[in-house]
Amino acid sequence: MIVVVGAGIAGLCAALAAAGDSRLGSEGLSAGGRASIPKNGTYRQQEVLLVCKDKFVESNTYHAQGGVATAIFNDDSPALHATDTMAAGHGLCDRTAVDILTDEGARRVRELIGDGWHVDRDGEGHVLRGLEAAHCRSRVVHAGGDATGKVLELDVSAMVRENPNITVLEHAFLNDVLVRDGHVTGVRLAVRDAQDGVETRVVDTDRVVLATGGAGRLFPYTTNPAVATGDGLAAAIRAGAQVADLEFYQFHPTALAIGEHFLVSEAVRGEGAVLLDEHGRRFMADIDPKAELAPRDVVARANFRTMQAQGGKPIMLDVSPMGKENPDLAEFLRHRFPTIDVYTRSLGFDWSKEPIPVAPAAHYWMGGIRTDLFGRASIPGLYAAGECARTGVQGANRLASNSLLEGMVYGYRAGLAAANDTDGTVWQPQDFDNSAIENMPVCQQPMLLHMPDATTQPNVAQSLVWDRARIEDVMWKHVGVIRDGDSLSQGVRELGEALSMANAADSADMSKTIAQPTAYAERIIMWENRNLLTAERVALNFAQRMCGIATMTAAFVKAADEAVETTDYRTPRTYACTRIVDTRKTTPGLRPFEKYAVTCGGGHNHRYGLSDAVMVKDNHLAALAEQGIDMAGAIRHIREQVGHTTHIEVEVDRLEQIKAALEGGADTIMLDNFSLEDTCKGVDLIAGNAIVEASGNMTLERIPQVAATGVDVISVGALTHSVSSIDLGLDWN
């Protein structure tokens, strides 16, 4: 039997695929990527247990408004859809995964429409479509106006109920994925009993598909329903599965700023609505050429900054431009956006006549459990799909209305693989460098994060265990729409302590001394809080360090730039501004990420690897001197060996060595631990005949003085070795 946890569109499609339901998959699969699936004639039919934390249809899918982006129309193509997806993801999407998404997505949508999905149609029966942000075509299919997810969930769940191979278990919370000898052996569930209490149930299985959705409930302002608490992701982390891209969280630009932060769909702006500041001025046209239809992250940050500038007052969403094509605007809004229309009017707004207040809110997690292109995770027998998975299609920012599509495509693929993989099948993930950013430094080896456990908080009291409101408050304060290194570091410290207390409270020993809630709902909230802390701590440990490096680099770059602007230099300069560069002093296993973070802060990489340049240091020169070879001769000998295309840098610690370095033909001369006076003299001696680099004891306070001497480059080891790293380790096995 295969266990599928989660009943959104990803879980439903996984269950149908694993059960061998022929109504899905008739148009076949796309080719591409490392991963493959065994097929001998027909796919296997397996018994499936579909586990739901709440009632069957309650999920993120059920609450989704906007629609499903799909290239099924004559003026569109999967290639165009893929291009838009890559652009929205800022080049960090996996191109192969995206190509599969857009090609197979069109196939799955056509199949579901043929199977009875009630999409919106015009009077002649043609499927209607809408335009949303960052799409070059109108390709978003909707159902029930702005109730697309609800209609999709109800229609596909009906297919699941009709399949005799699928059993649905409602009100069952996933506590843990069980692993023995490196392979999945089952799941531990907390099931609501007849008295509304909790019954622990272990289900033995060697195949588990996690489709548990995201974790929007990390934040106080979110469009996600109450069930979105990162349960599958946290269970996967505890089981030892690889996760990726957890630092990328999408904030939707337009949730209602009052009430329950109700989502005002992207489609509203797609139909022509505009965003206004407190003075009624439209501001997005000044920020991005696409204005209100820029990618979500761009609009969300613009909204947030505008709100900060006006003392926290919300942005106003004005739908009046739609009136040009829809004279009876109120009727159009009631027909096109019935759910939003009812909700806004329930709050006393007539949005056909007045703007409504909106603000950014947590919406979608791009990262998750790292999988291959058939949903396989790093632990044999574990699969993941939907928002809890990191397939590679979302990159740093999800394209509007791609989430339901991803659930269809990769949920189906994960279910197929779970049903048809042979014993011993292992995942075959795409490399991290399969993106649109050329020469982006990457690290293929995973890091091991040491999570706090019960032993770190031996005397925790129940009153100290964090409640949901405190978690949300810290997350919004330190890990919200706009972040910086110091704030992230503070968030890591606070949430780490909170997680250790949550783990202590849940441990077997502590449960004997701490009063545990008995009702199902109360126990679920306690476990959900632990899951939220588990999932976000992993993301924060990585994000706070990278953001800290970028922030520190930016401060050094700013200090150097300000000095250059006020200095009249005596000698020729290689660069317009003094460059701030890193050194070899990086954290083991994090070198590619840390060097990339330096460039994000405006700095430059000194050397990425030993093959990038030749570095001649004082110990090398001392060894050569014993053989009667002077500095100039050594440099000339190196040049003969490496050719004229390889950069040679020579470290000097005395002014007297500069003449020999120039005679030998050094490309860069590093002035190591020179005083300011000697640095000025060194710059004069070199006189533009080589790049001048200053190194040693480079604090932020010294940077303006050193930059004013006229050096071309300042190398700062502190950029990567002095930013705090919390609970990071390596597993070299």
Could you explain how this protein is built, in words?
The chain is of the alpha/beta class. It has 4 domains: 2-247 and 366-420, FAD/NAD(P)-binding domain; 250-361, Succinate dehydrogenase/fumarate reductase flavoprotein, catalytic domain (Flavocytochrome C3, Chain A, domain 1, Alpha-Beta Complex), CATH 3.90.700.10; 448-549, Methane Monooxygenase Hydroxylase, Chain G, domain 1, CATH 1.20.58; 552-721, TIM Barrel. It contains 21 helices and 25 strands. The strands form 7 sheets. Strands 19-24-23-22-21-20 form a 6-stranded parallel sheet. Strands 5-2-1-9-16 form a 5-stranded parallel sheet, covered by helices on one side. Helix 1 runs parallel beside helix 5 (148-162) and helix 9 packs across helix 10 (338-346). The chain is globular, with a radius of gyration of 29 Å.
CATH architecture type of the largest domain: 3-Layer(bba) Sandwich
Helix share of residues? 25-40%
Number of domains: 4
Amount of beta strand? 15-25%
**What's the arrangement of strands in the largest beta sheet?**
19-24-23-22-21-20
Counting DSSP H or I runs of 4 or more residues, the number of helices is 21
Q: Characterize the biggest β-sheet.
A: 6 strands, parallel
Distance between the termini: 32 Å
The rounded Rg comes to 29 Å
The name of the CATH superfamily of the largest domain reads FAD/NAD(P)-binding domain
Q: How would you state the average pLDDT, rounded?
A: 88
* Estimated structural class: alpha/beta
CATH topology of the largest domain: the name is: FAD/NAD(P)-binding domain
SSE inventory with pairings:
Blueprint: E1 2-5, H1 9-18, E2 48-51, H2 60-63, E3 68-69, H3 78-88, H4 95-114, E4 140-141, H5 148-162, E5 166-169, E6 172-180, E7 183-192, E8 198-204, E9 208-210, H6 231-239, E10 243-244, E11 249-256, H7 266-270, E12 274-276, H8 296-309, E13 315-318, H9 329-336, H10 338-346, E14 356-365, E15 368-370, E16 382-384, E17 389-390, H11 403-420, E18 448-449, H12 468-478, H13 485-506, H14 520-565, E19 579-581, H15 591-600, E20 613-616, H16 618-625, H17 631-642, E21 647-652, H18 658-664, E22 668-672, H19 676-686, E23 691-695, H20 703-707, E24 713-715, H21 718-721, E25 728-729
Parallel strand pairs: 1-2, 1-9, 2-5, 9-16, 15-17, 19-24, 20-21, 21-22, 22-23, 23-24
Antiparallel strand pairs: 3-4, 6-7, 7-8, 10-15, 11-14, 12-13, 13-14, 18-25
Helix pairs in contact: 1-5, 1-11, 3-4, 4-11, 6-14, 9-10, 12-13, 13-14, 14-15, 17-18
